[in-house]
Automatic annotation (TrEMBL):
Cross-referenced Pfam families: ABC_tran, oligo_HPY
Name recorded for this polypeptide: ABC transporter ATP-binding protein
Domain ABC transporter stretches: 10-259
Domain of life: Bacteria
Entry keywords, A to Z: ATP-binding, Cell membrane, Membrane, Nucleotide-binding, Transport
Source organism of this protein record: Phytohabitans maris
InterPro entries attached to this UniProt entry: AAA+_ATPase, ABC_Ni/Peptide_Import, ABC_transporter-like_ATP-bd, ABC_transporter-like_CS, Oligopep_ABC_C, P-loop_NTPase
Length: 337
């Protein structure tokens, strides 16, 4: 069912896992954002902020790990939360695909890469073995693997890390999904290989009008890749906005801290935010960032848990921050032009 709304509409998504003594640990709460057709949206935040669990919840992969998902995630109008596994399997690979950090681990070492891609094609499309194989070779070619018909007959261990990542992207895109969730797809790769994979994703996006949810902790990569940005901290969305607006004028002190941590030019020191993200079992009752925030006001910021709310006049699209001081603070960004 197609709708006029965004391609992916995530609202109030929460993920919890069983903890000792029968309790549940909530690791993502009230996560709300959307991705338009053909748009690249970055999901950024320090390690443990809930980026991966949120994306796994969207793909229906949390239950397999014993997790529970609440809230809503609609893809083209179809509610994904609570959808039976059989239907989710139909959607995964066909309408939404994922690429993870360590491609080699997601590939089957006992099958040639051609067989693996062809198998994915046949899972979703009623085509002959020959047609599926041809599609696999075509996809390997499309992601820049030289001599694709010969390489299709090789096994994953015969490919480098960067090539495995290309194979994963070929597999993710072989059934023309509308949404690709890329979870740190280049983190394990060296800088030049990373560059080529990012270029490839941008090319594929331009060619196929595919939307990408790009998960990373690297704001430099976000600046290059994304139209809009969602910032997560300690399981929550703390800021949302267009990439340029958010880089020009962050509205949450945490975003400013992340921007400060981008090394600019030679010799510039990487500034990291002092302190650590509070773990899910020890979240403060007020603002979750207050203990690390240089602007926190005692008695105000630690008193109440702030909601994610609209800031500014809306002239530069949806602009939201989870900070009671969002309007009064003049935070500095990195884009000055
Ligand atoms: N299967 C699980 N069972 C219990 N807790 C989990 C499980 N998976 C993730 N968590 C917890 O959920 C929280 C969020 O983890 P998540 O992997 O989503 O973080 P992330 O933002 O992707 O971090 P990173 O940048 O390191 O990938 C963490 O506290 C993590 O320990
Ligand atoms: Mg992760």
């Amino acid at each position: 069912m197609a709708t006029d709304g965004p391609l992916l509409d995530v609202r109030g998504l929460s993920v919890s896992f069983p903890a000792p003594r029968g309790e549940r640990l909530t690791v993502a709460s009230g996560v709300t954002f959307d991705v338009g057709a053909g748009e690249v949206v970055g999901l950024v935040g320090e390690s443990g902020s809930g980026k991966t669990v949120s994306s796994l919840a969207i793909s229906g992969l949390v239950a397999a790990q014993g997790g529970r998902v609440e809230g809503s995630a609609r893809l083209d109008g179809t509610e994904l939360v609570g959808l039976p596994e059989k239907e989710l399997r139909q959607l995964r690979g066909a309408r939404v695909s994922m690429v993870f950090q360590q491609a080699i681990r997601s590939l089957n070492p006992g099958l040639t890469v051609g067989e693996q891609i062809a198998e994915t094609v046949r899972r979703h499309r009623q085509v002959s073995r020959k047609a599926a194989w041809d599609r696999a070779v075509e996809m390997l070619d499309r992601v820049g693997i030289a001599n694709p018909s010969a390489r299709a007959q090789e096994y994953p261990h015969q490919f480098s890390g960067g090539m495995c990542q290309r194979v994963m992207i070929a597999m993710a895109l072989c059934c023309d999904p509308r949404l690709l969730i890329a979870d740190e797809p280049t983190t394990a790769l060296d800088v030049t290989v990373q560059r080529r994979i990012l270029d490839l994703l941008l090319e594929l996006r331009a060619e196929q009008d595919i939307a990408i949810l790009f998960i990373t902790h690297d704001l430099g990569v976000i600046a290059e890749m994304c139209d809009r940005v969602v910032v997560m901290y300690a399981g929550e969305v703390v800021e949302r906005g267009t990439m340029l607006d958010l880089f020009r004028r962050p509205r949450h002190p945490y975003t400013q801290g992340l921007l400060d941590a981008i090394p600019r030019g030679r010799g510039r020191r990487l500034v990291s935010i002092p302190g650590t993200v509070p773990p899910p079992m020890a979240l403060p009752s007020g603002c979750r960032f207050a203990a690390r925030c240089p602007y926190a006001e005692p008695g105000r910021c630690d008193a109440e848990h702030p909601p994610l709310r609209q800031v500014g006049d809306g002239s530069s699209g949806t602009r939201e921050a989870r900070c009671v001081r969002a309007e009064e603070l003049e935070l500095s960004g990195v884009v000055t032009a």
